[in-house]
Amino acid sequence: MDKSKQPFLKKKKKKRSFRRPLSPIQGKRIHHKNISLISRFISQQGKILPRRVTRLTLKQQRLVTKAIKIARILVLLPFRNNEKKLKRTKPTARTPRLRTRNK
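Request: output the structure for the sequence above.
Response:
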C-alpha cells in the first residue's frame, strides 16, 4: 500500500492534568469553635458560600457546612446578618387635622 493511499492518522495528544490551587484550609482542622476560619465561608447576609466560590473539596465543604450549622445552633454564629437596618434621617412632621363627618 502506498503512503499516499493510507488513511490520514492523527497524532494522539497527551492528557493534561488539572490541578486545583491549594485550598484555604490546607492542614487546618475544621471545628465549630474556630470562628475565624468558619466566618470566611459565610457571605455578608449569613449564607454558606458554595464550593465553586470557596474552592473547597466536597469533603471539606461538608465539614465546613456541618461546623457552621453547629456553631449557629450553639449561638457562636448568627443565623443571618441584620446589619441593613432602616435609618430615619429626619422625623416626618404630622399636622393634626380636624376630623369632621360628612352628613
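Residues 5 and 11 are 18 Å apart (CA to CA).
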